Amino acid sequence: MIAIERLSKTFESARGTSHLALSDISLEVADGQFVSILGPSGCGKSTLLYIVGGFVTPSTGSVRVKDAPVTGPGPDRGPVFQEFALFPWKTVLGNVMYGLIEQGAPRAIAEARARALIEMVHLKGYENFYPKELSGGMKQRVAIARTLAYGPSILLMDEPFGALDAHTRTGMQNELLDIWERDRKTVLFVTHSVEEAVFLSDRVVVLTRSPGRIKTIVDIDLPRPRKRAELLVDRRYQQYVVDIEQLMDNPADVIPPPAGEGGDASASPGGVVS
Fold it and tell me: pLDDT tens for residues 41-58?
């Protein structure tokens, strides 16, 4: 579904200096996979996501989606950001309908689709509320519903739960997995939380400190559908969290991946687990 090859990104500052944000990233994401990207602050996680979304152009290398080169944003890739980015002058229903209306869908069809999604994210009864009247978790549900409305095959999620309190964040993780189990969209998910990445993902990509390179990729061999109460007492889940935390704390650029009970893995020179 997503093929990233030898991708690097350099930013030029107003003072004429260069900053290498990403270096030689190669990664393939299969159709329907849930892949999280972890790494220290400033390592280029969000930049990588924006390049896949077509919002930022790579300096070298390429990104292909369904074997077509990415040259800009497209309806096949749906972004969900931490800031919600809702239209404050539109109601919940208006926000969720927006993308469909822009695509030319008849209003009756757009409204029916939007209402079904609002119910799916447990906001039925809030259709006529405005963003300022909603909690942070409710706003993020609206943002997810709005993105799902126009049917992207890929969700690009940049720390979508980072601004939420712990209890709301846990609830949103559960809801996201419910949505993913239902539709099995491809998800590329940026997070700072190791526990969140392990709970949600099929694979976890660990980047080095800036410039971001792939340190290793960890395959998460845990059963689905996932139940948090069960995983919290599962030694395999605990070991994944501990091993990836150690990877994050280790300053070495490329080190062998963790060997949890899910199976041993060996890293190739590029840091990609084979």
Answer: 888 999 999 999 999 999
pTM for this one? 0.85
How many angstroms from the chain centroid is the CA of residue 5? 19
Of 152, 210, 156, nearest to 25 by C-alpha is 210
Residue type, 150: Y
* Residue whose C-alpha is closest to residue 67's, from 7, 154, 6, 2: 2
Helical pair 136-149 and 92-102, crossing angle rounded to 10 deg: 20
- Answer yes or no: are the C-beta atoms of 172 and 137 closer than 8 Å: yes
What pLDDT band is residue 200 in, cutting at 50, 70 and 90?
Answer: very high
Q: Which two tokens stand for residue 13?
A: 């500052």
Q: What is the pLDDT of residues 122-146, one digit of tens each?
A: 899 999 999 999 998 899 889 999 9
45-67 exposure pattern, b = at least 16 Cβ within 10 A, e = fewer: bbbbbbbbbbebebbebebebee
Contacts of 79 (CB under 8 A, 6+ apart): 49, 53, 55, 147, 156, 157, 158
**What proportions of the chain, in percent to the nearest 5, are helix, strand and coil?**
35, 25, 40
Q: Is the pLDDT of residue 198 over 50?
A: yes
Q: Are 110 and 95 in contact (CB under 8 A)?
A: no
